[in-house]
């Protein structure tokens, strides 16, 4: 991996972290998220990237769009959250917003097959965890 791919990785992580942070800040304003949105966003993006770098770094030909990275990062964080996590509902709401944005505006985004796979997986987690939490879907 060359110097420029590392720079590109950092740029893509930063783009996704800003998306996650913005969603968390919306939840914080209405009282559903406690904590530092920027730190939390950076942490969950980095954890997802570390777990599956081959998915995010373009090894499959193209890098995923920041919306699909945002959705899969939030779905991972939600999946790993415990029942007593005070931010669990905020993660569900953020994930729902990201998936809805991708679905509603799919025609405006240059999604590739990897994006579609990530978004489908994130959507499945949204439905599964929403049902577990008793949120009507």
Give a quick rundown of the structure.
With 137 residues, this protein is an all-alpha fold. It contains six helices and no strands.
The profile of the biggest β sheet is: none
Oligomer: single chain
Global structural class: mainly alpha
Task: State mean pLDDT (0 to 100 scale).
Answer: 95
- How many E-type strands? 0
The residue fraction in helices comes out at over 70%
Question: What is the element layout, followed by pairings?
Answer:
Elements: H1 3-29, H2 37-51, H3 53-56, H4 66-80, H5 88-104, H6 113-132
Describe this structure in words.
The protein is mainly α and 137 residues long. The chain is 72% helix and 0% strand. It is built from 6 helices and no strands. The chain has helices at 3-29, 37-51, 53-56, 66-80, 88-104, 113-132. It is globular and about 40 Å long. It starts with a helix and ends in a 5-residue tail after the last helix. The model has no long low-confidence stretch (mean pLDDT 95).
What descriptors fit this protein?
137 residues, 6 helices, single chain, globular, mainly alpha
């Amino acid at each position: 991996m060359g110097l420029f791919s590392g720079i590109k990785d950092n740029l893509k992580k930063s783009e996704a972290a800003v998306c996650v942070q913005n969603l968390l800040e919306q939840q914080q304003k209405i009282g559903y998220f406690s904590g530092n949105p920027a730190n939390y966003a950076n942490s969950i993006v980095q954890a997802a990237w570390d777990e599956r770098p081959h998915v995010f770094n373009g090894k499959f030909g193209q890098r995923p769009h920041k919306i699909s990275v945002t959705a899969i990062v939030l779905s991972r964080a939600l999946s790993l959250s415990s029942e007593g996590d005070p931010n669990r509902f905020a993660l569900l709401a953020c994930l729902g917003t990201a998936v809805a944005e991708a679905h509603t505006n799919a025609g405006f985004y240059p999604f590739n097959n990897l994006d579609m796979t990530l978004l489908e997986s994130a959507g499945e987690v949204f439905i599964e965890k929403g049902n577990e939490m008793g949120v009507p879907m």
